[in-house]
Design brief:
Layout lengths: L2 H10 L3 H9 L10 H11 L3 H9 L3 H9 L8 H10 L2 H11 L15 H13 L1 H4 L4 H10 L5 H17 L4 H11 L16 H13 L1
Helix pairs in contact: 3-5, 4-5, 5-7, 7-8, 8-11, 10-12, 11-12, 11-13
Amino acid sequence: MTIEQVRQTIRSQAEEKRRLSNQKRGISDSIGTPLGKVRPLAKKLGHRPDMARQLWSGGVYEERLLAMMIIKPDDLSPDEIENWVTEADPLLSDELAFRVLKTRELDLDHWKGRSDKLERFAWMHQAATIKQTGPTSDEDLEIIRRDMKQAPKLIQEGMNRLLVETGLAYDELLPKVLEIAEEIGPWDDRVVHPGCVGTYAPEWIESVKKRSVK
């Protein structure tokens, strides 16, 4: 398929209801194509790094999501990763951390403190790779304890994800994770709908552990 055919396919499957829903979530560049339509297209395309870069450059949320499905960690230079994170909606940045770069080690300290988006990504990528890189350092846990409550929301979400993934991956660190989370307290004021789990780390961890037992 050519890039034009791919873009036409994505647009032909867009849904206005989904676009409006994404807009409410803060995704202003969405056209409303369901993820369930993007995944089969990615499988059909396979590994297409050049096309991925073309799709990314268009700025459409669903095209960028597809781009991340057809590119591999080593295809992206550090400068490209930084540019993608800076340009992307935060939810896409999370996808980049957990989907594309989950098996790649990065010098994330270089990105902390430079912008909210880059720092969020640094924490998220630490969370994504925690099983391969080893337990979260005491230093980072203490930074979370000290700074998370007053941090910008984007950074809070990254720090919180690292807390959660640490508690899930390393039983020996779970008591400390829970202690830090309880000291910080619930920090996210978004409404949690019935049947859903919020972002508060103790509840999130408990929910995942219960599901894993079933």
